[in-house]
Design a protein that fits this description.
Keywords: 2Fe-2S, Disulfide bond, Iron, Iron-sulfur, Metal-binding. GO terms for molecular function: 2 iron, 2 sulfur cluster binding; metal ion binding; monooxygenase activity; oxidoreductase activity, acting on paired donors, with incorporation or reduction of molecular oxygen. This is Cytochrome bc1 complex Rieske iron-sulfur subunit. Pfam families: Rieske (PF00355). This protein has one helix and 13 strands, in the order E-E-H-E-E-E-E-E-E-E-E-E-E-E. With about 150 residues, the protein is mainly β. The protein has two domains: about 30 residues; about 110 residues, Rieske Iron-sulfur Protein, CATH 2.102.10. The strands form four sheets. Strands 3-7-6-5 form a four-stranded antiparallel β-sheet, with no helix packed on it. Strand 10 and strand 11 form a beta hairpin. The protein is globular, with a radius of gyration of 19 Å. It starts with a strand and ends with a strand. The N terminus is likely disordered.
């Protein structure tokens, strides 16, 4: 047993169980979904799997960083450009168990946890995801993609 500063006794098993409960609570608290909208703008080629950086509260990425036929992940938003000039936004939360998707490659948005993948329009390409990614409202403002 160990003793903390208040004189409370805590054994290793109890401490590990409390840590597991806390980690689970943090994971559940991180799950969210978004609203339904997309935006359009002039096409700009970019690299295949760039991670977009958020510049301020609304700015998600630059249009040049979102490749035609690909996408980027900016925080909790996946931004894709399935066809030239058509930008779409989605939640980065997988609809299977709430893990965060972590890459956009070869025309697919991929989740590392259980192998789910999504097409660039957010629809399920491969399970176990039960439904499409939630849409997130974005818009193009000049050469920037921002939250709408």
């Amino acid at each position: 047993m160990t003793e903390n500063l208040s004189g409370f006794h805590l054994d290793r098993r109890t401490a590990l169980a409390a840590g597991a409960v806390a980690a689970t609570a943090l994971t559940v608290a991180g799950c969210s979904s978004g609203s339904n909208q997309s935006a359009s703008a002039a096409p700009n080629p970019g690299n295949g799997n760039a991670q977009a950086k958020k510049q301020d509260d609304d700015e998600l990425a630059y249009t040049k960083d979102v490749p035609v036929g690909g996408g980027v992940i900016a925080g909790d938003t996946v931004i894709t450009q399935p066809t030239a000039g058509s930008f779409q936004g989605f939640s980065s939360t997988c609809t299977h168990l709430g893990c965060k998707v972590n890459e956009v490659t070869n025309g697919l948005i991929k989740c590392p946890c259980h192998g789910s993948s999504y097409h660039l329009d957010g629809t399920v390409a491969g399970g176990p995801a039960p439904r499409a990614l939630d849409s997130k409202a974005i818009r193009v403002d000049g050469d920037k993609i921002v939250s709408a």
